[in-house]
Amino acid sequence: MLAKFLEDIGRFNKASLEYKEILKEEPKHTFAILFLANTLFREGKFKEAEKELKRTFSLEPPNKNTKANILLALGNLYLQQQRYKEAEAKLSEAFSLEPPNKNTKANILISLGNLYLQQQKHKEAEERLNEALSIEPQDKNIIISIHYALGSLYRRKGDLEKTKERFEEVVKSAGVIKSLVNKNRFAGGAHFHLGTIYQRMGENKKANYHFKECLRLIPDHRKAKENLGET
Question: Last residue of some domain: 119, 146, 162?
Fold first, then answer.
């Protein structure tokens, strides 16, 4: 599908136009609406994305998994706008459907974990993220995103050893998975956080290595540039 390809390579505006063309022919195409909403979300067009997602409910989603994915998308949309109560309500409803797909269930738990992390509810965040990991989702991208979220959680809690362990897992996994979505963002971010850890430990050689790797993957990472100059 051309629209999905355009979305995957980050050409969201053109992807949106392609999905709209599909919907002219098949106005009740639930997945096209869901994908359109996702591209609108990634363009920052939140109101339009919300309108499209809510429209799917009038089409009677065919199964639990599809409905759960729609609720998950709405939850993420509200989370991005810091509409926390609405986000929690949609994500909790999605999880209560008990979607049979492991990836869908894990993604819901990750979003709940990130929701609680943003609200400084560290215990709840850790519980949801570890539960997501225990599901053993088939998609390796999801597993890496769980490790990244847990690394972020432990960093906020000040647990350097657990933070290092999780971000090292992200770097290791990203290096062997060719199809990793947002590979540079995950791996680059993990390298940056590992660099700050080694910097705090006084191991400047290791810190420099990770800051340089971060900049190789994310060339405009301002903090990595600043920290590299300090070591």
Answer: 162
**Whole-model pTM above 0.70?**
yes
What is the number of domains present in the chain? Answer: 2
- pLDDT tens, position by position, for the chain (231 residues)? 433 433 343 444 555 556 666 665 666 677 777 777 887 887 888 998 898 888 888 776 668 888 898 999 999 999 999 999 999 999 999 999 999 999 999 999 999 999 999 999 999 999 999 999 999 998 888 999 999 999 999 999 999 999 999 999 999 988 766 665 567 889 999 999 999 999 999 999 999 999 999 999 999 999 999 998 766
- The identity of residue 34, as a single letter, is L
Residue 200 structural domain: 163-231
124 and 29 in a single domain? The answer is yes
- 98 & 192 share domain: no
**Final residue of a structural domain among 141, 162, 183:** 162
